[in-house]
Amino acid sequence: MGSIHRAVAPVLLCCLLLAGCSSGSQSGPDTSGKDGASAAGASGTAVPADTAKIAVGVGPQTTYTVQQQPSAGSCHFRYEKGEPLEDRACTPGAVSPAVTQANLTSTICRKGGYTKNIRPPESVTRKEKELNAASYGYTGSLGDAEYDHLISLQLGGDPNDARNLWVEPADPGHKPGAGVNNLKDPVETKLHTAVCSGKVTLAAAQQAIVTDWTTALSRLGVG
Prior knowledge:
By secondary structure, the protein is an alpha+beta fold. Helix content is 27%, strand content 10%.
């Protein structure tokens, strides 16, 4: 026993002098999402803390396929002053990893437009719209309802993630058979202008639209 103690003593003395001996290796920076750190989105892509609650989709695809929708009757519209809002459980929103604050000028703020080349084809969205109408129990005219990106493509929303698409009924007072005409659309355009002018950040606009599109402009002070 005495020989063991003599062998261990120098090691203990080293630890005391250096005050740094440890039984394990030092870990890297904390990325758990606490205290403003980044968190991983649905695709594993790191997103800023202020958008950590919004899922990250796969982004634009060369070929789109029909996405599985929530089960029939499982989603329910909400209404604010008569305006239809999405079911947050069924349609929480999803952002595209291809659009970031750093690349706005080459994506959604690009001259000549960005969205037309990343939209899924009608052959895909038509079937998804029918399935999503069943998800929400929507029985009105599909011609008067918009298959809407909750976070619009011009705000960096994912093009074909089922979490970002819903059948949006017509606004109150809408004339049946008059086609799609929703008040959410100009809200999205004003937010897009605000983002591209630097008045608000991309993350703030995305968060405002998923929180409540009817109050998004007032929340951000956008006229």
